[in-house]
Amino acid sequence: MSKNILIVDDDEMSRGLLRMVLEYDGCQCVEAENGASGLSLIESKSIDIVILDNAMPVMTGMEFLDQLQHIPHKSDIPIIMVTGFLNAVIRENATRLGAYAIIRKPYDFGELRAIVAQLCPPAAATRPHSFMVANMSQTYSPPPG
To answer: For residues 66-103, b (16+ Cβ closer than 10 Å) or e, as one string?
Structure first.
């Protein structure tokens, strides 16, 4: 049985790439461009895991975590927070607000996939071959010729 993952990130390309990787692993994904949209989706859909950016317009990841605590039967959804500005204060606050894991952006897809696999082993185990994504911060240059 596949898991339903909500990807909350204001960067459309990041959401799409992450969705492609997770769907390859057998997960079903929905996307939201900010925390407020993400909370609306959580209330209307069955969500098993949330991958949550922290720095977003409208509602930050921290605000999302705080608001999620007030939604009955939804506060126990595992949250994987991703942030480009990871420090001790953010880690402490995210943990206090219930984040399952906090990882730095740009994230390692292997690390993120391993965390998702811990949370939903059957979905992640459906594909035996590794799906590799190049670091998006690197540029590709075709071979000369």
So the answer is: bbbeeeeeeeebbbbbbbeebeeebeebbeebbbbbbb
Share of the chain above pLDDT 90, in %: 57
Instruction: Report pTM.
Output: 0.81
Rg of the Cα atoms in the chain? 15
Q: Which of 32, 22, 76, 83 is nearest to 92 (CA)?
A: 83
- Quote the DSSP letter at residue 23: H
Distance CA 142, CA 145 (A): 9
Phi and psi at residue 73, to the nearest 5°: 65, 10
Q: How far apart are CA 89 and CA 29, in angstroms?
A: 30
Q: What is the pLDDT of residue 121?
A: 63
| SS3 assignment, position 32 | strand
